[in-house]
Specification:
CATH class of the largest domain in chain A: Alpha Beta
Number of helices of chain A: 12
Largest interface: A-B, 48 and 47 residues
Order of helices and strands of chain A: EHEHEHEHEHEEHEHHEHEHEHEH
CATH architecture of the largest domain in chain A: 3-Layer(aba) Sandwich
Radius of gyration of chain A: 20 Å
Distance between the termini of chain A: 34 Å
Shape of chain A: globular
Number of strands of chain A: 12
Largest sheet of chain A: 6 strands, parallel
Oligomer: homodimer
CATH superfamily of the largest domain in chain A: P-loop containing nucleotide triphosphate hydrolases
Helix content of chain A: 25-40%
Structural class of chain A: alpha/beta
Number of domains of chain A: 2
Chain lengths: ~350, ~350
């Protein structure tokens, strides 16, 4: 990635915003440092992101790229992440049009846009940049067992499933640390986190042999940036497709502590699997124990808090489930998006102070 | 890989045969379907492989490639696997010389020889082939939760550490199955296994997001080849650098059963780590329980036997440790290399028959 000032983004979400798998768009709108001037989605054109995300997010939805350019867009961000990461063929025209109009194109797909001859030549002609966030550094290093810097507190978000808010919880907790006057660092481990924070590595793209080494290296970099380090988790330990990435993060970052993220109401793993197959979400106390067992196989770690995503229930139900989860797990529990991250971060800080974990 | 008849190999092991990390050379000599006409290793030139591996392996060691060519070599196999997989610079000349002499060059390194301009042009000029075994198919599929074919019995070798014999145990057990008149399949998951069996995928090279999907696909292919399927394991669940690959194999192959491999006398993980760091090998009963816990997070599985590598102890000590391990774990235990695989395979077969596991 070239260094760049604040971009003015149009986010392509064609047909997917407000439904499944628009988490990249929502993450960038909510937490990104770039301005979002429009959503490009002909199926909901004329509406506004505030209808879904609330009044703080006044982003118009447009039907064509030219409307977004008229609004000042200087970069097109591919805002969805289909399973497998491939580029739907129907988006090709809009990407070429963006590059010809000298908009940078930002993508987190597994299929690298910069390797596509049509896109590469359009970019070369106009001077636009193609950023493939999933392209990992050609580093090829295995983990070396690096100890953490004294004073650093490394906290990994883990979860009962994919796409339930592990990145969001890490971002909220880092914000709470900064608001408490501490040096907080968010460690992006996926393409959306990178789009938001402007650094990091999409570790699910790393060669398996170097996954733990790359996770270790991300933490090494973060320890130069601050003391309270919140690593974005990926997948879940019992997800039949994505668990190796989760294990690599746990064994590679050797976190002092973990925060377990769960979405209230979720019963099954999110997965494009064969029909008739079910993989129920495990009870939270079992997940706490399993995470501590797995981490402890390389370096001891504890789950010190539960972060609930209560977006599908009412305020009253959210408060009730939080109380019930605290009782069930014996751990401080909250929804840091709905009720703010200060209380949960306070509990995490207290746990570190009382135990001298780091 | 092009289809090919039996090759006549010279194996480059310069300075490493008989010491650490020559496991590729030894595996190919012991189990490969190709002929090995010479070892290329100037530090032990004039000696014979039989001095290390016994009289069955009459392979001369030569100091120069030309001597190997005089012995009829038609392919140069890179016979060691340095950590990180990079090509030592001093081997460049011998590889170019081999390609110019129209020897195929076979490599399991992470650094692809075929991508090197000097090697590629030498190969193109002479018509020699460069085979990079670690180059994975451009498939990019996540796991779909495919059920096993009825009648298939999928058995994964797992281990207390890297480089202790998981591939060898799988090869020996597959041989025992065939010798018992059953249809046995060895599933290669690493470059040496591929060199031996002529198919497979080096899963540690796979993109992390597709690791479980690739392991699932390997088993799907194996289930078309036979009933008794022995999957070569990689790494270990508590190895600080390689555990993600091990987890991907467990969750991706969803084995009916696992065979735990351990090297007698081993106390520490094999690892190029920072000085002062130690990672002791866990007790076998704990490893049995951990493997069953981890597998059970996606699909239930049991460790049904222990395979000991007793190569560092006497016959008497080997027999004693096997008895002690059976008592300690309650599992059938043997060294299938030292004492033959028939007894251990018999115990595995009995376990399947008594339980109706598959």
């Amino acid at each position: 990635m070239r260094p760049h000032s604040i971009r003015r983004l149009v986010i392509l979400t064609e047909g997917q915003f407000g439904v499944h798998h628009a988490k990249t768009a929502i993450g960038v709108i909510r937490y990104g440092r770039d301005d979002v001037v429009a959503l490009l989605d002909s199926t909901i054109a004329g509406r506004n992101v505030s209808e879904w995300l609330g009044d703080r997010y006044d982003v118009p939805v447009v039907a064509t790229l030219d409307e977004a350019i008229a609004l000042g867009a200087d970069a097109l961000l591919i805002g969805i992440a289909p399973t497998g990461g491939k580029l739907p063929e129907e988006w090709r025209a809009v990407i070429v049009h963006a590059l010809e109009a000298r908009l940078d194109v930002l993508s987190g797909l597994h299929t690298f846009l910069g390797d596509d001859p049509e896109f590469a030549s359009a970019a070369a002609l106009s001077g636009a940049e193609i950023v493939d966030y999933r392209r990992v550094p050609d580093r090829h290093q295995t983990a070396v067992g690096r100890p953490h810097r004294p004073g650093a507190k490394v906290i990994l978000t883990v979860g009962s499933d994919c796409a339930i808010g592990k990145m969001t919880v890490a971002l909220e907790l880092e914000r709470a640390a900064r608001e408490a006057g501490l040096s907080g660092v968010f460690v992006p481990t996926g393409q959306t986190g990178m789009m938001i924070a402007g650094w990091g590595i999409s570790v699910d793209r790393e060669i398996s042999d170097f996954l733990a080494g790359t996770c270790e290296w991300l933490v090494e970099q973060a320890e130069e940036m601050g003391d309270w380090i919140f690593v974005e988790g990926q997948g879940s330990i019992d997800h039949p497709a994505y668990s190796p990435v989760t294990f690599g993060l746990i064994h590679g970052t050797t976190p002092h502590a973990m925060v377990l993220v769960h979405k209230v109401g979720l019963e099954e793993h999110d997965w494009d699997h064969l029909p008739g197959i079910t993989h129920p979400i495990k009870p939270l106390p079992e997940l706490v124990a399993l995470h501590e067992t797995i981490a402890g196989m390389v370096a001891p770690s504890r789950v010190i808090a539960v972060a609930l995503n209560t977006s599908d229930v009412t305020d009253d139900d959210a408060r009730r489930v939080i109380r019930e989860t605290e009782a069930e797990t014996g751990l401080p529990t909250d929804d840091p998006v709905r009720f703010g991250p200060a209380r949960l971060f306070g509990a995490i800080r207290a746990a570190f102070e009382s135990e001298g974990t780091a």
